[in-house]
Each structure stands twice: as structure tokens, then as C-alpha cells.
């Protein structure tokens, strides 16, 4: 059998396998998402797969005209990447930043067929990364809202600088204009200490009551001298022991971890928890040559095209 | 940036694109997207139904009957002018090859042809095969890489078909396969529902029927009287007759 016939047969097998995989996956998703037609699930899978394959560039190419579908229902959502494709790739801006993305930016627009026209007829313009216009000022907002500056029928209250009928509080030495508030505590003369202590004397006095008094209480430690001295002794001994132990260990160093008793679990750093490395380890793939292996998802090397690393500005070589 | 109301996507990685896509869709649904947001409905689809064309078939037969190379003919070729696929391929790395293939597919003219072919009933598998085979013929990829790229290229063509709102064939003439399966499932579900109801009636409802409790407004009294009178003599229409 010639090479081409072999290839044809092999390819038929592969395409058959792909179709089976598609059907299996559609059924799998349908079990989770009930009451949704298979063709709808197929559409969702095709969109997700195209985003994965091209890092979103293909969807950007198509979504530029049909933004409602892939990037959200509004232009703002399209530019901000709030749709499913934007969510998958992290940002819509990254989609056209790759070499592939820039090459594919406008085929659907350029086609001029129903693909582009349908979206334009619906009023969905192409994605634009142009800056948003300057925010409105307070004056512009007020002017646009046309708010009244005065409440109808409102007039100035006569004599509003003082409360009507307010008189000086008896015993107040001075007053705040209008409110006539006392600035000093009445009959505070003779009272000493903090404000609370002064109040404890002056308030009962003004009410004609005897001043509050309380005998000071000795602390718990003062009342239990034996227990206190014993406690201090114990604490001193413990502290001395701990410090001695720490000093000895510092001098002698850590003991050798030999044998089963001395073995300790190695600390797995975050580096080893990387999903790509975990996957590579599970599949027996050498991470140095991972670029040679085809894999799909948001953690595979090709999905990193959209990262900042690949979008940073570069210097031209003279 | 991505929508702040939705959580970040979970890490997805798989050697199969179908599985990765399924995981991503399920993750998106879990994050709060609806299926309509992921795959928006844009009205009735264009049916890409394959139609038989005798003229084109005759043309194909005449092309294929023009003669094949004699076995061993390639061994007589000049070694200086080799075919493209006999030289080392341009892309040995499948990722670079995929970028090149997808880049070719997404060009306006190519996309126009793909959409037109899908709308006329060409299958996704056939288009994918033709594209990859052409790349192999150009000496850009090896046969192994060609096989590896079958799945992503097919999905890319499917995405184009979906974006163009076409109901396409995946392999052969299987346009309505998914819809038929849906209908079958729906039919099976309704049959099961009917069976359950019938079983309930047989088991429970018939036990509770008493002639004394039958509403005389529903069944005329004269018929009820006949039922009470004849009772066991009444036979079902489907019962065995007297032998």
C-alpha cells in the first residue's frame, strides 16, 4: 500500500475518533447541563476549543464583528472582555497582541458576507480599544440633570441664630452664644482629680446627696503573697531552662537526621504545585521538552502567549 | 479584564482538546455564565445539506481514471528534484505547525471558501483532511504532525461554522445526528413517563374504584344499574371469546 493510501486510511481513523470524542463530550456535558440541546452544547464546545487552540486569537478575529456572541452583549463588554472568551483568556486586549492574533484580526470584517453584515445590522460595532471619553464634571452633571437650586416655598427662619426661649443655665459661668451651654461643671470648686473623680464629688453635691466614696482594694497579688512568690519562682526556673536549652542547641547544632526515626517530610514548594508541572509529572513528560508535546487548556505553554511577558514592548534592533 | 463578578477560571490542561473544551465550558457554567452567554443563539441556522450532483461525480471519476503512477515509478525520479514531502519538513514542532495552519485557515479568502463549503454540505472532517494534506504536500509538516493536528483543525473549522450560523456535517452526511439523538431521548423520556403513569393507574387507582362511589352525573344511572346487575358477565372487548 502506498504512502498516500496509508495516510488516507489513518486520517479517516483519526477523524472518526475525533467525532466519537465530540459526541462523548457533548453527552458528558449534557448530563451536567440538563434541558439544553446537543447542538447548543456543540456550539459552546467549538467556541471554547477555538479559544484554547488559538489563545483567543481566532475568536478575536470573528468576535470583532460578532462581539455580542463571544465577548458580551455590549460594546463595553466586548472591549473589556467580559464575555466567555474574555473570561477564558483573562483579557480581550491580549487576543490581538500575538503574532497570530494580529494576522487574524479582521478576516470576518473583510469577508463582507453575512458574517460581518449580520452583526453590523444588529448594531454591534467592532471591538475598539480606544480610550473612554473624559468623565463628566459635577457642573456638567448638574446642568444635564437640571436640578432645582432652591426648595419651593422655603424661607429663612426668623431669629435662627438662637434657640427661641433659651435662657442661661443657673450656675453657668459662661455660655456659648445661642445655645447657652455651660462651659464648666457647676460647683466644681474643691473637687480634684480626673473628670470622673470630679463628677463623683460635684454631681451628688448639686443633687444634695453625700459624695460617693470607696475604700481602695488591694490587688490579688498583694492579698496572696505566698502564691505570688511561688509563681515567680516557677516562672524563673522555666525561663532559665528554656534559655539554657536554646543556648546548648545553638552551640551543638541540629542532630543528624539518620534512619527512619530521623527522616522528615520534604517541603514541597509552590514551584512543584504548578498545574503544568503536575500534569507533566503525571504523563511522564520532561518539562524541558514540554513545548514539543501537544496539550490543551489554560495552563499549557501555548496559552501563555497572551501573558504580559509576550505583550511587553520590545526595542528595535538597529 | 475579565468580568469582576465572575471567579477566575480554574486551571485546565489535557492532552485531548475535546476534554479541555468540555472542562472549560463546565468551568464557565460553574463560574456563573449561562449556556446562552457561552453559545448565543442567533436565529435559525443555514442547513449545510450535501446534495448529490451527477455531473461533479462524473468529473471526479474521469479525473481518477486518468491513470495512477506505475508501481516503483518514484524510484526512477531524479534525486536532485525531490518532492516537497520528501525533504525535511518546515515545522517539526506541532505547536508552530498549528499556528501556521490556523493562520492559513483564518485568512479572509480561505474562510470565505470554508464557509461556502460548509453551507453546501462539505463535512468538517473532509475539509480538515484537505487542509492538512495540502500542508503535508507543501512539505510543511510530517504525516505524524498531520495526525496530531486533526482535532484542533477540525474544531477550528467547527467554530467558523458556528460563527457563520451554519448547521454543518462533521463526518459524512450527519447533519441532523445530534438533533435526532435529542429527539430519540425526548421520545424515550415521554414513553417512560407514560409507562410510569400507566403503572400507577394499574397499581393504585383501579383499587380505589367502587361502583357506589362513582358519580352518577358522570355515568348515567341506567348504565350503572346495568353494571351492577350484570357485573361478572361483562367481558372486555379484548378478552377471549367462548370456544
Summarize, please:
Chain A is an all-alpha fold and 318 residues long.
* Overall average pLDDT of chain B: 84
Oligomer: heterodimer
Our count of helices of chain A gives 16
Apparent shape of chain B: elongated
What is the first-to-last residue Cα distance of chain A? 55 Å
Uncertain stretches of chain A: 64-81, 91-133
Query: What is the SS-derived class of chain B?
Result: mainly alpha
Could you please describe the fold and organization of this structure?
The complex is a heterodimer of chains A (318) and B (243). With 318 residues, chain A is mainly α. Chain A has a domain at 31-121. Chain A is 50% helix and 1% strand. Chain A contains 16 helices and one strand. Chain A has helices at 3-32, 38-54, 57-63, 67-70, 75-80, 84-89, 99-103, 107-111, 114-121, 138-145, 195-207, 220-223, 225-252, 259-262, 275-283, 308-311, and one strand spanning 296-297. In chain A, helix 1 packs across helix 2. Chain A is elongated, with a radius of gyration of 40 Å. Chain B has 243 residues and is mostly helical. Among the domains of chain B are: 11-40, no CATH class; 88-176, no CATH class. In chain B, 51% of the residues lie in helices and 2% in strands. Chain B has helices at residues 17-31, 35-38, 54-64, 94-105, 108-119, 124-137, 143-148, 150-163, 177-203, 221-230, and strands spanning 13-14, 46-47, 166-167. In chain B, strands 2-3 form a two-stranded parallel sheet. In chain B, helix 4 runs parallel beside helix 8 (150-163) and helix 6 (124-137) crosses helix 8. Chain B is elongated and about 105 Å long. Classes of the chains: A mainly alpha (318), B mainly alpha (243). At the A-B interface, helix 1, helix 2, helix 3, helix 6 and helix 7 of A face strand 1, helix 1, helix 2, helix 4 and helix 5 of B. Strand 1 (296-297) of chain A pairs antiparallel with strand 1 (13-14) of chain B, so a sheet runs across the interface.
